[in-house]
């Protein structure tokens, strides 16, 4: 269930009509074969380390999540109350599947997992994230990452 | 989410993503997206189900091998196991922990504080079990212990404005984090025993059956009035949009009717 028809009003109308950016270009990067890819994740669940500065509403910046950081060091500062957090509380992988990526790397299905993942505050105008996102892209490439798996919440 | 994918792809990184709200993805047109019919908050579908999560991840990454871009939007075919279980069992999930019966008038004579303290006394064993078995808790945004959180929230309910526990953040932001920690404590305890629950089932329990849930309904007009008095934009947003989920506001409307 998140078919919009399954949601109650006013949430259904709100989510179905949020203004979305309209980009003039359609970039498309192919990348290497799957077994050679180095994959990192970007989440908009406002994940952060406990001692990070809190991700706050409307901010377009990000927090860095080390791939080897203990699950218990991560909290979720997302502003919205209109999504389930109980799944995240039971298993971090339901929002940031680090274990699954590591398993795919160990099995040779992908090449490797990036040293860092990144988290933004969702419910934020994407235009306000552009500067930070482009800067983050430089950090990802410096780590050898060529592929990014993005997850909303 | 689609905007971030666009920026990263423009910087030379191949991207693929989960889509939870299909119309938003249709409008934003990111390079590759896998729409999943899962509950908001669960982009990988199901907690503690590695096989299902792996299926979702493989399906999302498989889009990277497509050559028919620049816009690919696919649908994942299956519902999440918790949703399927909820549909097959009309009674669904219920909290296995017996909480003390609620007093008729929680607002009188420190009733909320006493009732929440009694509930937490009943939940604490299960919270500790969840902490031990999961090796983690998500409580901690506010930096307050659970009894301090109850004191902080109940001060507002008693008509007082408590001292801001973290001067680097606004009072409203600290209240938001305290409320999130309170809810997380209850949910982690309630979810300690094995069993599938959806977010809606957990919300129905918290907001419908606990003193803490009812305290948040009581907090709603108090925070809204405080926002008005202080001309505090965040506190106003907190009161009206960030405190009670849209899907649970019907309880307040019922009581007012």
What does this structure look like?
The complex is a heterodimer of chains A (about 150) and B (about 260). Chain A has one domain (about 35-150). In chain A, about 20% of the residues lie in helices and about 20% in strands. Chain A has helices spanning about 10-15, 85-90, 100-105, 130-140, and strands at about 40-45, 45-50, 60-65, 75, 110-115, 115-120, 145-150. In chain A, the strands form two sheets. In chain A, strands 1, 3, 5, 6 and 7 form a five-stranded mixed beta sheet that branches. In chain A, strands 2-4 form a two-stranded antiparallel sheet. The radius of gyration of chain A is 16 Å and the shape is globular. Chain A starts with 10 loop residues before the first helix and ends with a strand. Chain B has two domains: about 1-90, no CATH class; about 110-255, no CATH class. Chain B has eleven helices and three strands, in the order H-E-H-E-H-E-H-H-H-H-H-H-H-H. Chain B has helices at about 1-10, 20-30, 50-60, 80-90, 110-135, 145-155, 170-190, 200-210, 210-230, 235-240, 250-255, and strands spanning about 15-20, 30-35, 70-75. Chain B has a three-stranded parallel beta sheet, with helices on both faces. Chain B starts with a helix and ends with a helix. In chain B, about 50% of the residues are buried. Classes of the chains: A alpha/beta (about 150), B mainly alpha (about 260).
């Amino acid at each position: 269930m998140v078919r919009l028809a399954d949601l109650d009003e006013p949430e259904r109308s709100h989510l179905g009509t949020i203004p979305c950016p309209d980009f003039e270009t359609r970039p498309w990067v192919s990348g290497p074969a799957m077994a050679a890819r180095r994959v990192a994740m970007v989440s908009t669940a406002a994940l952060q380390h406990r001692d990070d500065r809190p991700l706050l509403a409307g901010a377009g910046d990000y927090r860095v999540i080390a791939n080897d950081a203990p699950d218990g060091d991560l909290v979720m500062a997302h502003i919205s109350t209109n999504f389930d957090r109980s799944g995240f509380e039971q298993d971090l992988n339901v929002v940031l599947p680090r274990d699954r990526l590591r398993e795919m790397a160990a099995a040779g299905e992908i090449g490797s997992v990036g040293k860092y993942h990144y988290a933004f505050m969702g419910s934020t105008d994407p235009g306000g994230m552009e500067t930070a996102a482009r800067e983050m892209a430089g950090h990802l490439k410096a780590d050898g990452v060529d592929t990014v798996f993005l997850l909303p919440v | 989410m689609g905007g971030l994918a666009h920026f990263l792809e423009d910087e030379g990184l191949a991207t693929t993503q989960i889509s939870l709200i299909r119309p938003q993805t249709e409008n934003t047109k990111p390079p590759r997206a896998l729409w999943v019919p899962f509950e908001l908050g669960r982009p990988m579908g199901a907690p503690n189900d590695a096989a299902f999560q792996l299926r979702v991840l493989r399906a999302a990454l498989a889009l990277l091998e497509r050559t028919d871009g620049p816009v690919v939007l696919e649908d994942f075919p299956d519902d999440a196991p918790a949703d399927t279980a909820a549909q097959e069992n009309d009674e669904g999930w219920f909290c296995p922990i017996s909480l003390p019966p609620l007093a008729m008038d929680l607002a009188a004579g420190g009733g909320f504080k006493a009732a929440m303290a009694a509930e937490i006394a009943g939940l604490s064993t299960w919270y500790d079990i969840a902490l031990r078995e999961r090796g983690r808790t998500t409580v901690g945004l506010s930096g307050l212990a659970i009894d301090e959180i109850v004191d902080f929230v109940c001060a507002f309910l008693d008509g007082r404005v408590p001292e801001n526990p973290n001067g680097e953040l606004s009072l409203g932001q600290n209240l938001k984090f305290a409320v999130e920690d309170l809810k997380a404590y209850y949910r982690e305890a309630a979810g300690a025993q094995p069993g599938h629950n959806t977010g809606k089932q957990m919300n129905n329990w918290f907001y419908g059956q606990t003193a803490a849930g009812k305290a948040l309904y009581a907090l709603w007009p108090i925070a809204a009035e405080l926002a008005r008095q202080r001309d505090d934009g965040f506190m106003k947003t907190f009161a009206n949009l960030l405190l009670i989920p849209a899907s649970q506001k019907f309880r307040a409307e019922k009581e007012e009717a």
